[in-house]
Structure formats: structure tokens, C-alpha cells
Inverse folding.
């Protein structure tokens, strides 16, 4: 297997540049988008240059560094620096609504700011960079632990269905759902993968297939609506997906279409696993009903590669996520262990063990 792929989120400390592999262009082009300002970083998150809940969180850490540098150029006054930077951090936290890792990451930087507000702004900039780099390194370690914990749930010879991309590209490296697959393979098991194409943004076809092929992990692409047939044919032994936000009771928001996979898995008695770090769990929400569901531009559905596929005046639904009820989830795989129902208590237990609180 290749070394952990981490090259998609890079911070150049000399140039003060965030360099993001443009995930919109994969698999045909490996190009980077350079962000030197907070606005550019927010736009990269909104326009899906970088996507996937933990990757958005790590990117937000570096975006906060860019924000701190910008504010430092505007003022040396500590109080004005703090209030201006707080406002910019708020703006950053609003870039996309569903993945809670974004506000989780911004809150970490906010804590650094509040704990050190008596220090000179230049010092705070250094501390921001340290924290962003820590979050990046920490996310890779967390994904590796998720992989080791979840790998033991898979059996030698299993074929795993995954939806969207919860891989290295969606994290700082290694992945959550794909981390579980990598973890099982590292344990000596033969695992193959069926990747849903994941309309409309095609994260499965473009990104999951790209990174699994790169690691020589056998992958077969299927269109989203083949899921029921493939399960009926006995081709799928379990489903493993990532998450954008998990409520305290285990209800899980993930890429649109995940809920349908979970219902089908239940029908065919196939285990349905969610793999996610504790930073994706939002303890402030008792259940999934309050998770904000992002609606994205209609053109993502009505057009393919810039070409319309429907009459120009047709109405479009483009919900980017759906919520899978906890009762459909066989286990939630985290860095501290495999959580089983009832999730209210297993999640509460996980936070007593977690490194991230
Ligand atoms: O819209 P996206 O591509 O950001 O959605 C990504 C997902 O839904 C992933 O499955 C989720 O963020 C988990 S990534 C480890």
C-alpha cells in the first residue's frame, strides 16, 4: 500500500499560502488552488475545492491563520485585533452549514485567541499556526485509529459498499470509511469495494475510485440506484460510510443518498457502519432533526460538466445531505473504539475517553 496521502492540504509557512488540491478537477487533473487570504479559503470550502468534514475542519484551521495574518496587517492594537479576528472567525464558521468539524475547528482557534488575548498579536499568529498544524497531524492519527478499530469489524473476503468519499481526500489523510477499509487490509484481510458514484457531485466516481486505485485496492463503480440490486445479488457484506454531523443519540448526517443505503442494508440484514472522529459528534443536538441540511446550487443537478441535461426552467432539489436514524446504524466507529446502540450512552462514554473534548 502507498504511504498515507496527505498532499492535498499543504501550508507553505514561508509564503503564508494554503495550497489545496482542487478536488473538482480529479481524477483528470491534479492542480492546486492557492489561498493567500481568508476570503479565498472560504471560497475554496464553499466551492468544493476541498470537501469532506474533517478536511474542511483542517482547512479551516489554516484559513484562521490567514485571517490572523490579515488582521495583524490591519492593526497592532491587541483589543482591536481580538475583536476583528473574532468576527472573521465567525464568518469562516459559516462557510458550509452541515459538517460540524468546521465550527469545531474554528472553536479550537477561538479558544487559543481567548486564552492568549494578552499576548501581542504576532505571538497569537504563531500560536494559530501551531494549532492548525497540530490539528492536521492529529487528524491523520485519529483516522489511523478509526481504521484499526473498524478494520476488525470486516471479514477476510468482504466486499464493502461506500457512499461519497470519506477517504484521505476528505480528511487530513487515511480517511474514515476508507480508513476502515485500509485498516482491515493492514490486518491482512482481502477486501474489495463497491463505490457509489454519488450524484450529483460524483465524489464516489471521481474521488473514491481515484484514491483506492492509487492504493491498488480493488474497487468497482456502480451508479447510486444499483444499490438494491447489488445487495439482492449478495455482492455486499457491509456498508461503511463517513459522517458530517452525528447527534448525541447517534442520528447521522452524511452525503445525500446515505439514508437510502441504510434502509436497504436494513432490508437485506447487512451491517451498516458509520466511521467518524469524535470531532464530528455534536453533543449540543439531542437528535438529528436539528442538523442543518445544506442546499447547493441547482446547476449541480441540472447540468453535467457545464451541459444542461434538463429543460432550463425545471425546478430542482439539491439537498447535499440526509440524516440516517440511529436505529439503522449497526455501529459508529471512532478513534476511541466501536460504539454500539444505545448511542446516547456509548457516545457519552466515548467523550470520557476521547482526546478531543
Ligand atoms: O459535500 P461533501 O463532499 O463535503 O460531503 C462529504 C461527505 O458527505 C462525507 O461522507 C463526510 O464528510 C465524511 S468525510 C470523512
Amino acid at each position: 500500500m502507498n504511504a498515507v496521502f496527505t498532499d492535498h492540504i499543504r501550508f507553505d509557512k514561508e509564503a503564508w499560502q494554503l495550497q489545496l488540491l482542487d478536488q473538482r478537477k480529479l481524477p483528470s487533473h491534479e492542480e492546486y488552488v492557492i489561498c493567500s487570504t481568508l476570503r479565498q479559503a472560504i471560497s475554496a470550502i464553499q466551492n468544493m475545492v476541498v470537501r469532506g468534514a474533517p478536511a474542511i475542519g483542517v482547512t479551516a484551521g489554516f484559513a484562521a491563520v490567514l485571517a490572523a495574518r490579515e488582521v495583524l496587517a490591519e492593526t497592532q492594537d491587541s483589543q482591536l485585533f481580538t475583536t476583528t479576528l473574532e468576527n472573521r472567525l465567525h464568518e469562516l464558521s459559516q462557510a458550509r452549514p452541515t459538517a460540524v468539524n468546521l465550527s469545531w475547528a474554528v472553536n479550537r482557534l477561538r479558544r487559543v485567541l481567548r486564552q492568549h488575548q494578552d499576548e501581542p498579536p504576532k505571538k497569537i499568529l504563531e500560536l494559530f499556526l501551531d494549532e492548525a498544524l497540530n490539528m492536521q497531524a492529529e487528524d491523520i492519527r485519529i483516522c489511523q485509529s478509526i481504521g484499526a478499530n473498524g478494520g476488525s469489524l470486516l471479514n477476510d473476503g468482504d466486499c464493502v459498499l461506500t457512499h461519497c468519499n470519506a477517504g484521505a481526500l476528505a480528511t487530513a489523510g487515511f480517511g474514515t470509511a476508507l480508513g476502515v477499509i485500509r485498516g482491515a487490509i493492514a490486518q491482512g484481510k482481502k477486501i474489495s469495494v463497491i463505490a457509489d458514484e454519488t450524484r450529483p457531485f460524483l465524489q464516489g466516481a471521481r474521488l473514491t475510485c481515484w484514491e483506492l486505485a492509487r492504493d491498488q485496492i480493488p474497487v468497482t463503480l456502480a451508479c447510486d440506484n444499483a444499490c438494491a440490486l447489488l445487495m439482492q445479488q449478495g455482492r455486499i457484506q457491509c456498508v461503511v460510510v463517513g459522517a458530517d454531523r452525528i447527534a448525541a443519540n447517534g442520528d447521522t448526517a452524511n452525503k445525500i443518498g446515505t439514508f437510502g443505503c441504510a434502509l436497504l442494508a436494513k432490508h437485506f440484514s447487512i451491517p451498516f457502519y458509520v466511521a467518524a472522529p469524535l470531532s464530528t459528534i455534536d453533543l449540543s443536538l439531542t437528535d438529528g432533526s436539528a442538523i442543518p441540511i445544506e442546499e447547493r446550487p441547482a446547476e449541480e443537478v441540472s447540468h453535467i460538466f457545464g451541459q444542461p441535461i434538463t429543460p432550463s426552467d425545471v425546478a430542482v432539489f439539491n439537498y447535499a445531505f440526509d440524516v440516517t436514524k440511529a436505529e439503522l446504524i449497526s455501529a459508529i466507529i471512532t478513534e476511541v473504539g466501536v460504539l454500539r446502540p444505545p448511542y446516547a450512552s456509548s457516545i457519552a462514554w466515548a467523550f470520557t475517553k476521547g482526546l478531543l473534548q
About this structure: The chain has eleven helices and 16 strands. The first helix runs from residue 38 to 46. The pocket of MRU is lined by residues 51-54, 99, 164, 166, 170-171, 176, 203, 242-244, 254-255, 320 (CB under 6 Å). The CA atoms of residues 164 and 204 lie 5 Å apart.
